[in-house]
Design a protein that fits this description.
By secondary structure, the protein is mostly helical. The chain is built from two helices and no strands. Helices cover 96% and strands 0% of the residues.
Length: 108
């Protein structure tokens, strides 16, 4: 009977050690999981911030390019109008009488 009790005590001690090790492993795993979760949240926040910053930069660049292109379009339109006037004036001069043409040429 005493032998049997000793065997049971040894088994109980072994199982207690195993249970203690498992409990420590669980605690360690739980701590790592919490740490990883926190790191993941920080990483996600950093990524969201970088995306927002990049989005802002890209929008600013696009707006700047659009503004430059609009300015180029305005200059092109002005040049077109000037060229159109230049082409119309010689036609008007050709349509004038020879006497008026001489006066116009002399005035210039």
């Amino acid at each position: 009977m005493i032998e049997h009790l000793k065997v049971l005590e040894e088994e109980l001690t072994k199982k207690s050690r195993i249970l203690k090790r498992l409990s420590e492993q669980y605690t360690t795993s739980e701590e790592k999981l919490t740490e990883n979760s926190s790191i993941s949240e920080e990483t996600l926040e950093n990524l969201e911030q970088k995306i927002t910053e990049n989005d802002t930069l890209v929008r600013e660049e696009i707006e700047e390019k659009i503004s430059k292109n609009e300015a180029k379009v305005e200059k092109t339109e002005e040049k077109f109008l000037q060229n159109e006037e230049k082409f119309q004036n010689p036609l008007e001069e050709k349509m004038m009488s020879p006497t008026l043409r001489v006066c116009v040429i002399n005035d210039r």
